[in-house]
Amino acid sequence: MLDIQNIFKTFNAGTVNEKTALNGVSLHLNEGESVAVIGGNGAGKSTLMNSVAGTWFVDSGRIVLDGMDITHLPEHKRAKYIGRVFQDPMMGTAATMQIEENLALALRRGQGRTLRSGITRGEREMFRELLSTLDLGLEDRLTAKVGLLSGGQRQALTLLMASLVKPKLLLLDEHTAALDPKTAAKVMAVTRTIVNRDALTTLMITHNMRDAIEYGDRLIMMYEGRIALDIAGEEKQKLTVEDLLAKFGQATGSDEADDKLLLS
Fold first, then answer.
1. Do the bridges between strand 169-173 and strand 82-85 make them parallel or antiparallel, or are there none, so unpaired?
2. In what order do the strands lie in the sheet with 60-65?
3. Which of 47, 152, 194, 252 is the most core-located residue (most Cβ within 10 A)?
4. What is the value of pTM for the model shown?
């Protein structure tokens, strides 16, 4: 479903601030596969995510989504095929619009705009049913403004919106990092439910090593713009945080780990 072929990205090339963020990264995701990406600050995780989303173009290499070369496709055109949940709960929803209006916008993603009437009765019932699966009581608040919701409720709603029209790829960009531990656990449970229910091909960036070990089919650790570890199957199932740190040291020749990574 996603084929990343030897991509490079350098910022501020030719200056004293030159930084190679991606250094020949190749990654293949099968349809329905869920991959967690972990690494310290500056490892290249966010650059990888933004390159796939089209926030910026890579310097070289190719990005192929479901057989379609999207390397030079603008971000707004990739949005038809890619769902994304950001770290900031405020970014994925329109605060001044109602819950049902946000869901209606998500439902019409990629469609042409028409003059037909707004939300139908059938759509409203569908929204209510989908919201009930979140177990947050939002199904009884369809006309509430999204700006009144908590951060966790907004992230759960954003997840639902990102997957409402099944995307070819779901990008989760440290989507629990801004939440307290209890709320983050709830959002991760919702994430697992939605990803498994719809068999979504998913790329999730996280600083939380336990989440990276627990969720997804594969775990990838990045270091200095490269993929240092790629762990799957039974090996991943048996992993502990201590194992992961040891493997990281062996793969990179360094026992230095980012403070944020360790604290998570």
1. parallel
2. 19-29, 2-11, 60-65, 68-69
3. 47
4. 0.88
Neighbouring C-beta atoms of residue 121, cutoff 10 Å: 7
Closest CA to 91 of 102, 100, 80: 102
CA distance 147 to 92: 12
Contact 235, 203 (CB under 8 A): no
Give pLDDT tens digits for 222-240: 999 999 999 999 999 899 9
Q: What is the DSSP string of 196-257?
A: HHHT--EEEE-S-HHHHHHSSSEEEEEETTEEEEEEEHHHHHT--HHHHHHHHHHHHT----
Beta bridge partners, 219, equal: 36, 231
CATH number for the segment(s) 2-263: 3.40.50.300
- Tens of pLDDT along 63-77? 999 999 999 999 989
| Cβ atoms within 10 Å, residue 224 | 15
Q: How far is CA 226 from CA 48, 116, 221, in A?
A: 10, 49, 9
Rounded CA gap, 148 and 152, in Å? Answer: 12
Q: Where are the domains of the chain?
A: 2-263
